[in-house]
Structures are given as structure tokens and as C-alpha cells.
Amino acid sequence: MEINGRKYERITSIATFEHIIDLPDVVAKAATLLHEKRGHLRVAIPNEGTLLWKLGTKFTGFEFRKKYGLDYQVLMQYEHINSAREIEQVLKYFFRNVRRSVFGLSKTLRFTGFMIVRR
Questions:
Q1: Which end of the chain offers a freer environment for a tag, N or C, measured as fewer CB atoms within 10 Å?
Q2: CA 70, CA 10: separation in Å to the nearest integer?
């Protein structure tokens, strides 16, 4: 599908794919909008479960409980419906070239992940 007859060289998503209910549909649509040779999708996602993520959410959770009297982890269970692994699997289904990098010291000591995918 084209929008106004255009194909795009880059589509960028920052901290959204973990929230999308129909992620395969959204990724499929993005794939149709990308230029066949030069197009790429850039996706930044949080990496739940890693050490830095756990530390960050502990601090956020403390402030959240203090302000609202609610458990932040319960909120996160409903807010983040796609894990980093699931997002990567969907991207690999629609794109053959998936390159992953991290923001942090290593794969296990990362706060966010970043993927660039091409057709």
C-alpha cells in the first residue's frame, strides 16, 4: 500500500511496539509502505526482565506507589503486551534482515533494544 503514491525509506517506532495489540498487522502494513530496496524500519523497545530494566522499574514503582498507592508492576503487566522476544519474532516473520543492538553494556545489562530491519 502506498500513501499518496509514496514509498518510504525509513519508518521509526520508539517505545510503541510493546503496546500494540495487533502487532503483526501493523508490521505488515509498515512493510508495504517501505521502499523495496532502500526502505528500513527502525524499532526501539524496552527490554523487560534485564537487570537495568528491573532497577529502573523499581525506582519508578516506588514513586508510582507513593503517588498513587498502586502497584506499578501490575500496571506494567497490562500495559506491555508484547515482549522483546515476541516483537523480534514478528519482525523476523515479515523481514529477512533483522539487525539488533542494545542501549546498555551488553545483552543482559541493557535498558532498551534497537532493531533495524530491511526487506
A1: N
A2: 39
3-state SS record for 37-91? CCCEEEEEEECCCCHHHHHHHHHHHHHHHHHHCCCHHHHHHHHCCCCHHHHHHHH
Query: Which amino acid is located at 42 in the chain?
Result: R
pTM equals 0.78
* Residue 116 maps to a domain: no
Determine the pLDDT at residue 75.
84
Amino acid at 47: N
Query: How far are the Cα atoms of 24, 27, 40, 44, 79 from residue 94, in angstroms, in the given order?
Result: 8, 7, 12, 17, 24
Could you tell me the residue range of the domain that residue 61 belongs to? Answer: 10-99
Instruction: Specify if 5 maps to a domain.
Output: no
**Model confidence pLDDT, tens digit, residues 68-100:** 999 988 887 788 888 888 999 999 999 989 988
